[in-house]
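FORM 7B - TANDEM STRUCTURE REPORT

SECTION 1: FIRST PROTEIN
SEQUENCE AND TOKENS:
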Amino acid sequence: MIYKTIFLLRTRIAAAVAVAAMAFVWSAVPVLAATSADVATAPPPEAAAIKKQLEAKFPGAQVGAIAKSPYFGLFEVQFDNQMIYTDAKAKYVIVGSVYEVEGKVNLTEQRLRKLNRVDVASLPLDLAFKRVKGNGERKLIVFSDADCPFCAKLENELKQVDNVTIYTFLFPIDQLHPDSARKSRMIWCSPDKVKAWDAFFASGTLPDNAGDCDNPVEKTNALGQKLRVQATPTLIFANGSVVPGAIPPEQMEAEFKTAAADAKKPVAAGK
């Protein structure tokens, strides 16, 4: 799905404008309203004209927030699931990521994550099963596929993480794992969902049921599509920051610290 998204975006742009190419690095993040005070900035005066030009040149594209970038004199534009860069007349478009070489920081990815945080308070957590480790004071939300090898890797990494409440949304990706939905329903229908989930990843053992109880798998699939979850696992932290992939414990700890720091920041006016 990721490669298809990249192909469609490149095709759409190549058909209409001359593209100044850069290394293309994609991050799967949902397109929702920003929730952090540090991104509540007024759009530049050129924003309306840029938006009009891009929508005319790329019919059907979702053109979101537009801001003046701090580099190259260009404007950054949320374009579908991506960040692109353009001039004031939208004559040229750069598709790709901007890196700070000295700090080895992907500035484009960093900016997108700030702009596209999920409103965690609005998530239907009753559609997920809950695991509490230690005092459970931190929060982690995971979209996971039972047959996804990277989800298995994440489960192994989570063994090293404590003091967290984990909400797991069953998100089988049928195109890749056609039997995952059946397994997800069986796990949900178990009297002890957490035990069944852990047993499956430990030994491949499934609970003894037909998976025909009232289960949320269709709803969690719809939720993931609404949030534009493109990969499993996808992690969402308490501040709404979205991280695709199985990240190591030390990176999780860094994300938890950032989420805790964000919780102490004043809420932006009008939020």
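SECTION 2: SECOND PROTEIN
SEQUENCE AND TOKENS:
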Amino acid sequence: MGNRDRERPESNPSPFVISLLAAALVICTSQAAAAQTPPTAFVDAATVVPGLVLDMRYAGAHNFVGRPINGYEAARCWLTRSAADALAGVARDLAPRGLVLKVFDCYRPTRAVANFVRWARDLSDTAGKAEFYPQVDKRTLFRDGYIATHSGHSRGSTIDMTLAQAGGSELDMGTPFDFFSPRSSPGDPNVSATARADRATLAAAMRHRGFRPYVKEWWHFTLAREPFPNTYFDFPVR
């Protein structure tokens, strides 16, 4: 072999390079740790909202997928402080009527949204069809707006919820939570008069405190002045 083909001896990095690499490692480690914890603008809503009842469906198996969803490691309701404070106002407004708030989902990590998208594209997985979408073709879930590639929940100011009596029984809303059907639209005329009245009570109370409803789901509300309108978070629910 000629000289140009010989291997060059390895040289040890200088102390300056070593210090730069160490600093970069610390920064990356800190960023990774920060990505796993809620930002300071988030709070556990149960510590803020009086009488809040938790039924966090995606932390367990009672949901349209039929198993716990990625990113939900505990049955907790994380929200931005702004959304939690507004929700506390709703709870105080309704308390004299003997009503409490029951939440099914709050902040949702983007990894959970990706889990839903994968499930929706697997047309062979229909374990929850009988309970959650008996009359809807799974192939149309994206088109019909029941599943999306991005969710406002990941911004931390959207809540899925219902009203319940102080004793625990839910009010009649005409359909269960996460029921994929036109009947779940807040203004659908095919539900009973009682359900229409209860939906109206929920919507009015939420609007009064600055939340806006979603046209396809009576249970879905987003704080109109949400603090992170363009940021989608992915820290796990712990």
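SECTION 3: OBSERVATIONS ON SECOND PROTEIN
The mean pLDDT is 89.
The two ends are 61 Å apart (CA to CA).

SECTION 4: SIGNATURE
Preparer initials: ____
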